Amino acid sequence: MFSNKIVKSLEKSSWIRAMFEEGARLAKEYGAENVYDYSIGNPYLEPPKEVMEALRKYTSDEVKGVHRYMSNAGYVDVREKLAAKISEESGINISPENIIMTVGAAGALNVTLKALLNEEEEVILFSPYFVEYGTYIDNVGGKAVVIPTEKETFEPDLKILEEAINKNTKAIIINSPNNPTGVIYKEDKLKAMEEVLKRKEKELGIKIYVISDEPYSKIVYDGVKIPAVLGIFENAIVVNSYSKSLGLAGERIGYIGVSSKIEDGEILVSALAYCNRTLGFVNAPGLFQKVIGDSLDAAIDVNEYKIRRDYLYENLTRLGFEIVKPEGAFYLFPKALIEDDVAFVRAAQKYNILLVPGSGFGCPGYFRMSYCVTMEMIEKSIPAFEKLVAEFK
Amino acid sequence: MFSNKIVKSLEKSSWIRAMFEEGARLAKEYGAENVYDYSIGNPYLEPPKEVMEALRKYTSDEVKGVHRYMSNAGYVDVREKLAAKISEESGINISPENIIMTVGAAGALNVTLKALLNEEEEVILFSPYFVEYGTYIDNVGGKAVVIPTEKETFEPDLKILEEAINKNTKAIIINSPNNPTGVIYKEDKLKAMEEVLKRKEKELGIKIYVISDEPYSKIVYDGVKIPAVLGIFENAIVVNSYSKSLGLAGERIGYIGVSSKIEDGEILVSALAYCNRTLGFVNAPGLFQKVIGDSLDAAIDVNEYKIRRDYLYENLTRLGFEIVKPEGAFYLFPKALIEDDVAFVRAAQKYNILLVPGSGFGCPGYFRMSYCVTMEMIEKSIPAFEKLVAEFK
Fold first, then answer.
1. Closest CA to B128 of B143, B109, B144, B148
2. A13 to chain B: nearest residue by CA?
3. Is the pLDDT of residue A236 over 80?
4. Would the keyword Transferase be found if you checked this record's keyword annotation (chains A, B) (predicted)?
5. CA distance A166 to A201
6. For residue B70, which residues of chain A lie inside 8 Å, CB to CB?
7. What are the residues whose beta carbons fall under 8 Å from the beta carbon of B24, sequence distance 6 or more?
């Protein structure tokens, strides 16, 4: 009656959102304070003061013309400031023309894939991966090719990557700091990856675009420096959002940055602005474009997340969980205590602990915990984890 | 190299946007005050005071949690208020569950089409029509079927509609007050249309959904009352935005309202929320959802537009243009003085008048003027129109 494909998808819809609904149900039954909801990456921190000040500045009666249509690519003054900031941070010069303001990173990814892909062309994903990537690729008629990462580090396995590339390969999506593992890809790994890509491009006579999804780029611990993807890959397209770094997940504000080294890049940039319009985004929300332009040096307090990572990592490893220690984002991706991650997550629900099974990220046998939650909830959850572990001993 | 289809589309990209760019070029060359830009529906009026007050309320430090993720369908409290308002205005009861907050009407349309259509299913459009409808339908693999309206009124021709419906017909899009004609479809016409749809549904064993795109529903003149589509069509899906009625075009805030009479409506509503997420919108911008919830009784001053309509209609008919007098929206759709509307629009550019050819709306021989511009510009443009008319006498 409606779209058959969509109705079918509803039945196996995202685990993450299913947990979100289950959390609401449990909270109603047991009280929110007795539910340990690690299911969704919904930052509880309020935006930093720079954001709040900019919001007040642009909503005063003195400021006019903020809420109207602008170019589909976004306000020029904001793109100028952002280009300067990206150039400064990456050491790679990027011009305002190469930036498209978008409706979050999810919008940016859909726009980018639409502009790049022809029917049946392939996009390589490294599992575990953010499961919606698959849907976005399908939206534009492309084909997702999922390959595993190295189990000890969750970093890409370049041998498997090289084997997966064929003449239909159009792009790869990388996501570092990673959701769901929190792992940061090392500079050497990315440089070696570029060598593989260049070799295969030459061999097959194709171009392979590296779409780097970086919403967690500001959430990094222990002084680790994120390698600048724009400096490493010739065909780099960076997509980003301020959902996590400025606590603006519900406002849908992000951008696409196109490397100036991409051949015919000016056509790609036009195609991106066109797709931003015709996919129905039209433009990134105007007020928040202006706010971002004034808040480029701001970030939520990462130390808040570091405290949570350390506390959870310590306690869960003490309880016997195997975890690759994350250096960024606000996720842990421990190994489940039994092979069947879905059964394990169901077991955790009995103790009011909400987790997401690794299967939801194309990586069975693990589970994801999102720790952008209160310290109080984390502390109260440890006894519940102890009971859960006891069940499997 | 990139998507072939998109790169091709770039070449014949929207006339409206092309004019927007040409306007910027002319303004640079001759000074903005000497360019008469009637090309784009970008409301120059600032949002009403209710909106500004709500913006300041929700951006104070006292209000927390506004900027986070919420349900993909939007904030429940906002949907409750909106449902009450729609029920009051239409006389038809609509529940909060049947409302999905969206990234503008463009987002709403893409989400609705994605949720409804299977490959190759058809959507009927009445020309002249907002040209992006065709692209939205193509985005989800559907097929646009464009049929003409009655030339004297620009209202749907029901005989042609009946002939166009076949077993692949899934939906029709109506848009009243209409872009580009400003015409409002009469209640009798819509009721007769529903009779046609019901007859064909029965005959062919199909369901036909009526997608009513209503962003101009608050911009109505001469005390005309807009018929409530939710009351007339069993399978009504209303999409709307606050771009025009509250001067928030750049903020991308709108909604979908699903008739409670639609069979299996709860599945459709879930499908819409799912598509809102997976097409990359995720949710409508959070702050503006809250602002809308507090501004449901507000509207920009329609009288400002009425003055412009009257002034332009009077002067242009005096100069010899044939125009169906619009009762809503902020567009005029006069007949061009020569058959070739594109040539006519090019001729107008010589006098620094920017128009959009009717061809851009699937209706050659006419042109669109958007009069959401300053009175000063309108007044100064009349001598330029006089010169243009003289050229064709």
1. B148
2. B274
3. yes
4. yes
5. 9
6. 250
7. none
Put simply, the answer to whether A279 touches B139 (Cβ < 8 Å) is yes
| Paired sense of beta strands B169-174 and A356-357, if any | unpaired
Question: pLDDT tens for residues A283-325?
Answer: 999 999 999 999 999 998 999 999 999 999 999 999 999 999 9
Would you say residue A33 has pLDDT above 90?
A: no
Is residue A167's pLDDT more than 70? Answer: yes
Letter for the amino acid at A12?
K
pLDDT at A15: 64
C-alpha–C-alpha distance, residues B247 and A300, integer Å = 32
- ipTM score: 0.95
pLDDT 10s digits, B136-173: 999 999 999 999 999 999 999 999 999 999 999 999 99
Measure the CA–CA gap between B236 and A47, rounded to whole angstroms: 39
In this structure, the number of other CB atoms found within 10 A of the CB of residue B88 comes to: 11
Token pair of B105, please? 């009407």
Q: Which residues contact B64 (CB under 8 A, 6 or more apart)?
A: A46
Q: Do B7 and A278 touch (CB under 8 A)?
A: no
Measured CA angle at B381 (ends B379, B385), to 5 deg: 125
Give the pLDDT confidence of A45-92 residue by residue, as tens digits: 899 999 999 999 999 999 999 999 999 999 999 999 999 999 998 889
Q: How many CB atoms lie within 10 A of CB B136?
A: 24
- Smallest Cβ–Cβ distance between B70 and the set A10, A14, A250 belongs to A250
- Please give the angle made by the CA atoms of A116, A119 and A125, to the nearest 5 degrees: 65
Residue A189 above 90 pLDDT? yes
DSSP lists the bridge partners of residue B240 as: B255
Q: Which positions ≥6 away from B324 have C-beta within 8 Å?
A: B152, B153, B154, B181, B182, B183, B333
List CB contacts (< 8 A) between B116 and chain A. Answer: 2-3
The residue among B109, B110, B88, B84 whose CA lies nearest residue B98 is: B84
In the numeric block, the tokens 């400031």 are attached to: A81
Distance from CA of B334 to the nearest CA of A (A): 25
pLDDT on residue A14? 61
Query: What 8-state DSSP symbol labels residue A339?
Result: S
Q: Which residues of B touch A285 (CB under 8 A)?
A: 250-252, 285, 288
Share of chain A above pLDDT 90, in %: 87
Closest approach of A127 to chain B, Cα-based (Å): 19
What pLDDT does B25 receive? 84
**Where are any strands of DSSP class E within A262-355?**
331-332, 353-354
Query: What whole-number distance in Å separates Cα of residue B270 and Cα of residue A17?
Result: 12
By the 8 A CB rule, do B2 and A268 touch? Answer: yes
Q: Which domains does chain B have, with CATH numbers?
A: 4-47+300-391 (3.90.1150.10), 63-294 (3.40.640.10)
Quote the CA–CA distance of B344 and B371 in Å, as a whole number.
19
CA distance A384 to A217: 32
